[in-house]
């Protein structure tokens, strides 16, 4: 089937293009599953973040294949990828690049810009909370603006450009937690849990046998951009739009005089309009991954936690009653949907 760019399609062309895209996404799942075991939900959410055109924050203990996941996604999506290990002494120039002075054979001196590792299509920012706020801001500005400015000169990043950052929930001493405004730039926060017994058994047997499984590219960068455009063209039912707005608005403290006040009383601050935008894109991407042409209320309920949890904070009352943000979102989903 000819893979036509979305820009050249009318409404009637969306259906065959969506079917073709779904076939590619199924192959991406198959290839990723060869090296990432038992993390189907994590893989799906990471893929959704990329298809929706955003960035994701991966949160999990060490040794849960976060780095391997990013490397694998880069391979199957046909994206060149780079990795930055964030440390307290990392400087902004170590990320975006810097100018160096060169002298020609005739003695003429000039500056040349040397690009940093941010100039890639898929960037892994490992343990982003270990770098200073100044260094974090350099990356987060690039994530938002999709370009960097050095000495007044603008340098555009490759397209598509995605950041999958990792954060260790342990060992918080000496770290610099991301401020709320910067967390909001991540489309999703993906929590990675420990594998179950059978999955860990498979990991043990298949990763210590001396055989290295390699994955192959399923699509290229241009094809990914076409699919990302398709996601934005997918129709969203009015019921889903209303559910997204209701959920996001009730995730704020005591707004609209809604009946969910007994839940909202635990919220210190909640998500802004960017959360509605993020959830709208993510539910479309999930629908496409599952071979559907439009999202449903189930998509909203499934993606509510990864899209909203890093955009909320609980007050002292919630902490005193041992209520967590995922617990609160689950209650809001049940009340609203």
Give the low-confidence spans.
1-6
Residue-averaged pLDDT, rounded?
88
Assigned CATH architecture of the largest domain: 3-Layer(aba) Sandwich
Q: Would you tell me the structural class of the helices and strands?
A: alpha/beta
CATH superfamily of the largest domain: P-loop containing nucleotide triphosphate hydrolases
What order do the helices and strands follow?
HHEHEHEEEHEEEHEHHHHEHHEHH
Q: Report the top-level CATH class of the largest domain.
A: Alpha Beta
Can you count the helices?
14
- Specify Rg, calculated over alpha carbons: 21 Å
Distance between the termini: 39 Å
Number of strands: 11
Largest sheet: 5 strands, parallel
Kindly report the spatial arrangement of strands forming the biggest sheet. 2-5-8-1-9
The third-level CATH topology of the largest domain is Rossmann fold
């Amino acid at each position: 089937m000819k893979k036509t760019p979305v820009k050249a399609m009318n409404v009637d062309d969306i259906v065959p293009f969506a079917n073709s895209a779904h076939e590619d996404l199924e192959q991406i799942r198959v290839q990723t599953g060869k090296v990432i075991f038992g993390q189907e939900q994590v893989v799906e959410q990471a893929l959704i973040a990329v298809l929706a055109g955003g960035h994701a924050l991966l949160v999990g203990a060490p040794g849960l294949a976060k780095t391997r996941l990013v490397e694998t996604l880069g391979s199957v999506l046909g994206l060149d990828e780079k990795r930055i290990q964030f440390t307290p002494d990392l400087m902004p120039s170590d990320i975006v690049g810097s100018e160096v002075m060169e002298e020609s054979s005739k003695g003429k001196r000039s500056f040349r810009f040397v690009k940093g590792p941010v100039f890639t299509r898929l960037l892994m920012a490992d343990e982003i909370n270990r770098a200073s706020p100044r260094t974090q801001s350099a990356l987060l500005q690039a994530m938002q603006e999709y370009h960097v400015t050095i000495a007044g000169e603008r340098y555009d990043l490759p397209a598509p450009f995605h950041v999958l950052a990792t954060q260790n929930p342990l060992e918080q001493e000496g770290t610099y937690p991301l401020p709320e405004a910067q967390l909001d730039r991540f489309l999703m926060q993906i929590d990675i849990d420990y594998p179950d017994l059978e999955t860990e058994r498979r990991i043990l047997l298949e990763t210590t046998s001396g055989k290295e499984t390699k994955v192959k590219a399923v699509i290229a960068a241009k094809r990914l951009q076409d699919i990302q455009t398709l996601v934005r063209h997918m129709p969203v039912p009015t019921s889903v739009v209303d559910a997204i707005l209701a959920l996001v608005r009730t995730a704020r403290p005591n707004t609209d005089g809604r009946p969910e006040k007994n839940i909202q009383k635990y919220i210190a601050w909640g998500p802004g309009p960017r959360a509605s935008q993020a959830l709208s894109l993510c539910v479309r991407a999930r629908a496409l991954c599952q071979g559907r042409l439009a999202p449903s209320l189930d998509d909203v309920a499934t993606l509510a936690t990864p899209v909203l949890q890093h955009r909320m904070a609980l007050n002292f009352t919630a902490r005193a009653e041992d209520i967590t943000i995922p617990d609160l979102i689950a209650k809001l989903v049940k009340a609203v949907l």
